[in-house]
Amino acid sequence: MKLDQFPEAIRPRLIPKPDGEMIYRCLGCRKEHGIETLLYTCPDCGSVLLLHDRRFERLKAIDGGTWRKILDYRRMLKDPAVKGIYRYHEFIGPVIPLSSVVYLGEGHTPVVEANAHLQAKAGIRFFYKNDGQNPSASFKDRGMASALSYINFLIQEGHVDEVLSICASTGDTSAAAALYAAYLKPKIKSAVLLPHKKVTPQQLSQPLGSGADVFEIPGVFDDCMKVVEALSERYNVALLNSKNAWRILGQESYSYEIAQDFDYAMADKVVVVPIGNAGNITAVMSGFLKFFEAGIIDALPKIVGVQSVHANPVYRYYRQPEDGQRKFVPMTVKPSVAQAAMIGNPVSMPRVIHLVERYNRVAGDLRVFFAEVTEQDIMDWQLTANRNGHIACTHGGESLAGLMKAMQNGDVDSKETAIVDSTAHALKFAGFQDMYFQDSFPDGYAVRPNPDLVNRPRYVRPESIEKFPEAGRPLEGEAFDRFVDAVSGQIAESLDLKKKV
Ligand SMILES: Cc1ncc(COP(=O)(O)O)c(C=O)c1O
């Protein structure tokens, strides 16, 4: 069946109709605001916003089986009519015409089943979903594709001429923002604010390489966030942090992909995500809720949100008894190897509170759980995962450690199947692996190497070094033959190789 043979209502929209179908809805005063202007907070009460699609009832009118066929059909298209996250166009931003969509290859990241050894160690069947295999090597590209497609749409529609995008970042938001803005230059320029020395060298190199204006300030992410909030209130800039509700919409694609990858059977699934600014868990809950309400998935999967003991304000909130009046208290963070999630005052906390309540209510059961893990557990599980064929970053290690904790807490059963979010590529956080291997973590991290996981290069050179002043430099003739003999002999001895007969 061809795409244009589906009824008009379920084909991706080619013509925009921003006639009030999509609106911002305030989570505080519940007021609604039009999307012609980019808003971050409610102009009336200052609370955070979520985007709401007034046509959603119409999407619900199409039965789940038809939706599944449409989505599976789109997956088979060689030249997809709807690319990347916009395979789920109707759920992500149906007012954005496909002609405004910015696509840099994001989404549809691999889902890799853990090998038998790792599953036996973990005591549960689980898969990593590798969001580090997005273009800027983290899940942030999903939300940036959506936010930048929307801005592109505003430009194409003549609502704005030029945009300076701005964000605070623990490293990955800035990498993604700068990359997508660079693609849309000269109409969009990018400026990013980073906490000095609290992003990795790889992360810092990304916005620099994309040509963004990069500002470093003393302090932590929460301080940078205050500055960009002030800038976006006082000046004409487009804020690209997840306070921007378009980011959340794009990140919902993570849930849609999991649903599709597991044939829409979610009843026995557990999705584990790390939490920093809480945009990701907001999007994951919101995405599953939409698919469930549209009848596309059979149940709402369990969700486990994980935080390090060094940055755990969300966990602390939910640790308070449910019957009492829970109070959210921002905290001062301590150094964490899950550095990109080192956030003490998550911007999306009101969204989390709203959605956790709704998620559990719609499920009719407790389906959202929180776990806290030590820095040691994060590193140990990250390295264990990677020794078994994964490319998990420290936050992926945090997720896996959180899954273990949730099992210990009795929130997850060993008969369930988990999908563990590795939110970025391991290489972005290689410095923490180095510190672990060299036992050189500065005070404050509370991580010591487990000798079984430590790995170091061995420098092999001939004994009689004076004859080979620069081992590694190609030598010639007999000298080179002796070099090869000596070095290969040492490697064979070290690996305990048996000689061929
Ligand atoms: C790699 C990585 N993992 C996890 C997080 C936490 O996600 P969120 O801030 O949406 O909670 C971030 C960013 O903050 C991140 O960059």
UniProtKB/TrEMBL annotation:
Enzyme Commission numbers on file: 4.2.3.1
Reaction catalysed by this enzyme: O-phospho-L-homoserine + H2O = L-threonine + phosphate
Essential cofactor(s): pyridoxal 5'-phosphate
Keywords (A to Z) from UniProt: Amino-acid biosynthesis, Pyridoxal phosphate, Threonine biosynthesis
Record flagged with keyword Magnesium: no
GO biological process: threonine biosynthetic process
Superkingdom assignment: Bacteria
Molecular function in Gene Ontology: pyridoxal phosphate binding; threonine synthase activity
Chain ranges of the Tryptophan synthase beta chain-like PALP domain: 104-417
InterPro entries registered for this protein in UniProt: Ser/Thr_deHydtase_PyrdxlP-BS, Thr_synthase-like, Threonine_Synthase, TrpB-like_PALP, TrpB-like_PALP_sf
Leading EC class: lyase
Stated name of the protein: Threonine synthase
Gene that encodes it: thrC
